[in-house]
Amino acid sequence: MKSMTKALLASAMAVAASVPAFAETTITLGHVDPVEWTTSKKGAAAKVFKELVEAESAGRIKVNVYPSGQLGGETDLVQSAQEGTLTMAMVSGPFARVCPEAGVLEIPYLFPSAPVAWSVLDGDFGKQLSEHCLAKTGLRTLAYGETGFRNFTNSKRAVSEPKDLAGLKIRVMTQPLYVEMVKAMGGEPTPIAWPEVPAALTTGVVDGQENPVSVIYANKFYEMQKYMTLDGHVYGADFFLINDAIFSKLPAEDQQIVKRAAQVAAIAGRAIQQINSAEGLTALAAKGMTITTPTAEQLDKFRAVAQPAVISWLEKEVDPTWITKVQSAVDAAATK
């Protein structure tokens, strides 16, 4: 009997030794949007990611989310993720500061619609860009979310084509690409940090700015701006990033959990962005904004001046083949 017991114990120990021991893991995730998931695309994505990872890992993995810029702006979040003091970050345009090739996604009037953008980002081009940026930054792009199409607002006059921007001081992000774009359109680009934008609009330091509809509404820019132009000049993608050294140390099963959750979370964020954009447009009209939707001919005029200027600038920053690749990917997706 004793020998049988010993044999059973030995067998049990052997089986136990063959089963991977999953240590409890904590993932930290930072973003700059509000936490409320019904009004925040990053808030929605973060909530979905946290719930899925914690549920599918049966509690082995805990996700701590730091929203609303608690850990700094997007540039800070990228740096923290690279250093490994933060596991993950959801960021948009500032990622191009460490992986300039990501800037090709912000070529003006590149994407004719959100579905075309999704097809490009979720397809071969998105995979190639992810692999390239991983090698360059040590940050793995798990999925692409959405910030949305950016549009102009101003306090002076309706803008339906580039000549209407002449002389208008337009706040832009502190990124050269946006400076080149607005300058080519005839406006006066004024780089201003995001926290200072409301004061700049209120005091007249600038006449206008550019952002997605959901951002314009959420920040009550209708109180400072009378006119909006739905030109959708740049499609903003969110990069769902993770420090690859940390990711690589996760057991294979947990890596798959994290990847799946990020992909679902990105889609959830896109959905919330689309809903908020539609609701925001109706709300902005109700608040008294004059909304101009350029015709196809007028959009061609915007494209004709903005694209060459930005592409010329980009060609000095990245291998031009990246520009050709994304343009080809857009053309293919648009004809499906």
UniProtKB/TrEMBL annotation:
Cellular location(s): Cell envelope
Signal peptide boundaries: 1-23
Cellular component, GO annotation: outer membrane-bounded periplasmic space
Domain of life: Bacteria
Keywords attached to this entry: Signal, Transport
A single GO BP: transmembrane transport
Family (UniProt): Belongs to the bacterial solute-binding protein 7 family.
NCBIfam families in the cross-refs: dctP, TRAP_S1
Name of the protein this chain belongs to: DctP family TRAP transporter solute-binding subunit
Phylogenetic lineage: Bacteria, Pseudomonadati, Pseudomonadota, Gammaproteobacteria, Oceanospirillales
